[in-house]
Design a protein that fits this description.
Blueprint (H helix, E strand, L loop, with lengths): L2 E3 L6 E3 L1 E4 L10 H13 L4 E3 L8 H9 L9 E6 L15 H15 L4 E6 L8 H13 L3 E6 L4 H13 L4 E4 L14 H8 L2 E4 L30 H5 L5 H8 L2 H6 L4 H10 L4 E6 L4 H7 L9 H11 L8 H6 L7
Parallel strand pairs: 3-4, 3-10, 4-5, 5-6, 6-7, 7-8, 8-9, 9-10
Antiparallel strand pairs: 1-2
Helix pairs in contact: 1-2, 1-11, 2-3, 3-4, 4-5, 5-6
Organism: Propioniciclava soli
Protein name: Aldo/keto reductase family protein
InterPro entries: AKR, K_chnl_volt-dep_bsu_KCNAB-rel, NAD(P)_OxRdtase_dom_sf, NADP_OxRdtase_dom
Length: 336
């Protein structure tokens, strides 16, 4: 397992991070979830990503229990705050000082730790002054409850403004967590150049496009039983933008490229995002331990330039690259 520095900091994280969105506490039983975490540890992963909203706080509990007994200093644990949690009252979401201060304590309790290595704003809060948000994050850091801060799905302008305030407050905003894959490249033209300038790294989610880039969804065929596309708890909604014959047909053209590199389709997808030098890590999830074991093999893979060109040619115009999609996919107001 390879390590990379996270932003302009001295913190190293594994270039493949284990994340438990949409699985732990909802889709996968606790025993299976723990087995996946153990597989990640066995594969050399020491960096783990979660959020308070995942399974309405249960995912943090499952991760905390699964990591119990591990040497804390040998792990890098990330969590996030913004989306509604608990009874979802008017102050149970957003990035107000009240919600941040209450949420970090809840996350630490569920994760069974005194601090997280990275505390991330899960979205931009249009209803809270950014100064209030960043001051609250600064106080969390100074209290020793988080070591660094990051953001998720913020635009380039939002990242720049947050980074400036963090610097003025004497804390480090070192990461951005956007969606990024062969099919979804909206960060490349604005977010990545801004982050390179500021010393901020990407920790990307959905590098396999919620499973689409495994090639298991074939045009004209029934959906695989138990797959993300059949999940009525949220998975099907997340994947539907890719579930059309044009996209799925193009993805099938990646198979000979993967075979030529002696990689599975999933390994190719994870290795592809890691070619971006602004990336610190790609987040992988799993419902079975063997998925972790296979996907970590993408660590350290160098894809030749001719194969990178072949991937672009195979996917053609189904790739989404409009930078405006980051803002469009962000909440315009708090959900509660």
């Amino acid at each position: 397992m390879k390590y990379r520095y996270l932003g302009n900091s001295g913190l190293k994280i594994t270039e493949i991070v284990y994340g438990n969105w949409l699985t732990h506490g909802s889709q996968v039983e606790n025993e299976a979830a723990t087995a996946c975490v153990r597989a990640a540890l066995d594969a050399g992963i020491t960096s783990f990503d979660t959020a308070d909203v995942y399974a309405n706080t249960v995912a943090e509990e499952v991760l905390g229990e699964a990591l119990k007994g591990e040497r804390r200093a040998s792990l890098e644990i990330f969590t996030k705050v913004y989306w509604p949690t608990g009874p979802k009252g008017p102050n149970d979401c957003g990035l107000s000082r009240k919600h941040i201060m209450e949420s970090i304590d809840g996350s630490l309790q569920r994760l069974q730790t005194d601090y997280v290595d990275l505390y991330q704003a899960h979205r931009f809060d249009t209803e809270t002054p950014l100064e209030e948000t960043m001051q609250a994050f600064a106080d969390v850091v100074r209290a020793g409850k988080a070591l660094y801060i990051g953001v998720s799905e913020w635009t380039a302008d939002q990242i720049r403004a947050g980074h400036e305030l963090a610097r003025d407050l004497g804390i480090q905003l070192i990461s951005s967590q956007p969606q990024y894959s062969m099919l979804w490249r909206v960060i490349e033209s604005e977010v990545v150049p801004t982050c390179e300038e500021l010393g901020v790294s990407q920790i990307v989610w959905s590098p396999i496009a919620q499973g689409v880039l495994t090639g298991k969804y074939v045009p004209g065929e029934d959906l695989p039983e138990g797959s993300r596309a059949t999940d009525t708890k949220g998975g099907a909604d997340m994947i539907k933008r890719f579930m059309n014959d044009d996209v799925l047909g193009r993805v099938q053209k990646l198979k000979p490229i993967a075979e030529g590199l002696d990689l599975s389709m999933a390994q190719l997808a994870v290795a592809w995002v890691l070619q971006n030098k602004n990336l610190a890590a790609a987040i992988i999830g799993a419902s079975r331990p063997e998925q972790v074991t296979e996907n970590v093999k993408a660590s350290g893979v160098e894809i030749p330039a001719d194969a990178m060109r072949a991937i672009d040619e195979a996917l053609g115009d189904v790739v989404v690259s409009d930078p405006a999609m980051t803002a469009q996919n962000g909440p315009q107001k708090r959900p509660v």
